[in-house]
Amino acid sequence: MESLSKEIIDRDFYRWSVYGLFVTCNTFGFFIAMTIGILLPSIADEFSLSPTSQGIFGSSPYWAYILLTLVITWWVTRYSPKVIVAVTMLLSSLCLAFQGWAPTFFFLLIGRLLFGITMIAREAAGPLIIRQWLTQREVNLAGGVENLVFGFIVSSGILVTPELLDIFGGDWRPVMKILALVFLLLIGLWLVLVKDREITAEVQKNGNTSYVEKNNQGLSRSILKKALSYKEVWIASFGFCGAFMAFTSFNSFLPTMFLESYGISLSKSSFVAASYVFPGGISGIIAGYYIRGKEMRTPVLVIAGAVIAITFLGMTYTENYLFLLILGSINGLAWGFFPILYMVPYHLDDIRPREIAVAVALVWTIASLGLSIGPYLTGYIQEVTGDLRLSLRIVALAPITVLIAGLMLKLTDNSKNGDIKFPDKKCEAIL
Description:
The protein is 76% helix and 0% strand. The longest helix is centred in the C-terminal third of the chain and has 33 residues. By secondary structure, the protein is mostly helical.
């Protein structure tokens, strides 16, 4: 990378390539976490897992998010994004290999918990990379790009995973090991293609808000306190909590419900799951590009919250495969709200880069309550009632929090100014 000229580094194509590669690396972690439903029937069969145990396993990567997100973010942001991503990807690969080896469910669970920790640390690099490489007005678009890459990779993974499972005769262990190798390949690309960008007068002039600093000593208590003082951050966190509760519950248990209640194979069920993942990527980048201010976010969030809840609920009432695909596609389009809510911390007045990182960490901490509670609650209700469809119907109502968040955010808007306010050069210097 040292051979790259400054001219190449400053080009839009390279800037967006760096961000796109980061999103790809980060999304592969979520791909692992969110496609577990495809592997869960074979894992449950091997270890004789109860519905509650299956729910615990499905939610386990997110437990660490609840307890450690703020702490880990506080710690890792003292390092460069290049180092953060490379190290966490290596650790993720090792965790996957460990899961593929696990002789008991206990070791498998430990491996999945550790994998969740690596996801937290890698996620912390996101706000730093955005501030390092992208301009002020590109922030919402960055959220849309993340949504698009997420939709493509996760939906592709959902479709490919059952095929890999079939290739290995239903054995989930080789699948884990292959995924570990994918992480190693991504590390190689990252190290070869990515360079940290230091702040310069020219970069500032061009509007690219780089934050890379020398001899950084990490976050102060005042930065942590200020980042957590914005009520908009808490509202965004609340909105995500219910949406993610339903999302992880359906990702974990929908293939099982289709197989046991509808007689739909894992291969066919993967197409339904993909149908509500991929469209969200397309609608997300559209929303990220066109909705750059505050004026449109309330109606979008209100509609999205209602649509996601209704379509998830509908999936538990019909066995018609075509109708399931239609419901999934509508559900996926509604997930275009993601960049609007996720980028709320970037729109706050007088917020500095590391405050953004901590604010985003808080969003993930609260959202992870939904990520972790959802599968566990679904499995528990199923075990108590003996009805998986009933448990999913209850959880399907959780995305109403997105609707509520949209209404609450409207109350916090003091003006019609939708411009993103970034700190000036003087402020950057005291970070």
